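Quick one: structure for this chain?
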Amino acid sequence: MRSKDNIILKKVNNYINELKDFTNGYDYETFCKDRKTINACVFDLSQIGELVSKFSQEFLDEYKNVDWRGLKALRNRIVHDYDGINLTMVWEVIDKEIAILQYDIQNILHKEN
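Got it. Here's what it folds into:
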């Protein structure tokens, strides 16, 4: 793995840890009432989407099992505010999909380091 890809993975993992910290103990209703947490989480998700667009093609080809394209699409929806930000979708990503992404990233880091 290229050094640049390794750095990106570690940054993504850091944003995931922030998302988990920000929403620790939250449910959907609590999340929806906390604008600061919503804004922080939306920012982190957009950063993750931006970062994954910087992976080398070699890396993307090797780790096709991860939905990198979906992360980029989420970033685009957030940044360009297509039809407003859907908090249900954001919460589902944070509550369910981020743990899967972190598991995949940690496996890649373990394999490559």
